[in-house]
Specification:
Length: 555
Amino acid sequence: MHVKHLRTPDIVIGADTIVTVDEQILEKPVDKQDAYRMLSRLSGKEHSVFTGVVIIHCSSKDNQLETEITDFYEETKVKFSDLSEELLWEYIHSGEPMDKAGGYGIQALGGMLVEYVHGDFLNVVGFPLNHFCKKLAELYYPPLKHTIQHTKHDSIPSVDTFESLSDGESESSSFKEHKGASKLDSPSGVICNSENSSGVRTGSVVPLENQNGVSDSAAKVPSKILDLMDGFKASKALFVASKLKMFDHLKKRSPLNAVDIANEIGTSVCGTERLLDACAALGLLEKTPQGYSNTDSANTYLASDGEYSLHGYIIHSNDHLWPLFTHLESAVKEGSRQNHRAFGKKTEDLFNDYYQSQEVKQRFMAAMHSIAHLTARDVATAFDLSEFKTACDLGGCTGALAHELTQIYPHMKVTVFDLPEVIANSSCFQPSERYTAPVTFVSGDFFTDDLPEADLYILSRVLHDWPDEKIHVLLNKISTVCRPGCGILLAEMILDDEKKNRSTALLQSLNMLVQTEGKERSGSEYRGLLEEHGFSKVKIKLTGNLLDVLLCIKI
Ligand SMILES: C[S@@+](CC[C@H](N)C(=O)[O-])C[C@H]1O[C@@H](n2cnc3c(N)ncnc32)[C@H](O)[C@@H]1O
């Protein structure tokens, strides 16, 4: 959900869950599950615990910020006395306030404050009822085209409801729109274009068999399987559009038509037009009679100078991961990495592959940097690290996380420790002067060289590169230099113990199979490895971002 327009007086609705305990606000919203856990622990006692919606009043009159927390249980007013207006707006615009429990606010009168809901109203208020009912109906009673309707509610933004069985989900964010698009060449479906309340054109699929009212659900290919079969085409379309810098051109100037873009990037008009249309259907671009433009998300994430650009990681995915994944079958049969098949050379060490050529090294570092930059804030704030005066980010690469730590903990001295080839190349990834914080870069090999002294050792996406034997070598080295009270902070995609729920992390584990000797691990597996080296008090935080965080302390 995006709160697109704010009315005067500026009232913003839809923050995530905030929990206050004894009048202390945990500044960082916790996720809903955490909140419920806390709530159940504290219920019945005299604590003020609130889950639900934060309504922030910004009064331009006296510059006072007041936060009203509505809750299933109680209501109260808390003053954000230590939160500056600037910070608040940064927070609001970071997109964080727009998900999960924030949606509860728009169920009631709060809905009047929101002018637009991009996506499905019912899906932002909790259980994805719309999607659920739609899927049930698809299974048991496919809708006729003329039954699709839109419902307008008085007190809430105009929305599609499950009564209409429209494909509201496909509009929920520009990046999710690929669901409808992926069915373009589906043998079982045709696209019906409809206009939603925000004027967004959406494609909802009506099975062919419904057009004459005859249901033949046995012949229907499940949409999830179709999505997966199409997924590689969608990925490649994104990769190629990124590689050809289409999003960069459109960020500089838009709308542009296919001929303009083809001329600028030196490609065929017919091929360019098809790629642009595919990107528009995937929700990456907007297409109007005037031409193509980037969506907001494309400007932020896909343009190479976007605030949270993933361009580096996308190019790495295209040039490095794609060839490796074409050998997934061999990797599965043999249980080992496929670099020799993909790139025709056998090296002992994964990082040798990357650092032998300046071009590949630059590409790899840019890829690491883009993900680190996007996740650094969540990693750095997952736990209060202010008690640690010094930190060493082992395998810290470009220093993106190190810089974030120094922003959040100004008194912390942070060292980045990485291989000499990386340290020599790190200068081109440093933030502008204005933000330059005192991060020290030290080169060395963490398996063989002395480690810099620190109170906190950080291993971000390092352990997943290695098999258990190597991890024991590294943890043993860290444990030897750690005094009691020192800590290790891991940032990884942490699997659930049964290894069945987190598809992004499980796919990432396949990614590790094709190129490393490592794998993604569960919280219990990391805990086991760390406890063998004297680290306990393990705390795990699932951030909801690409990386989760584990903190443990040497006893
Ligand atoms: C997957 S990258 C992660 C980079 C960074 N921590 C992040 O999260 O973006 C692994 C990093 O470990 C570094 N590395 C690998 N082997 C190393 C070694 N033996 N000694 C020091 N650093 C090493 C690599 O150079 C690379 O920067």
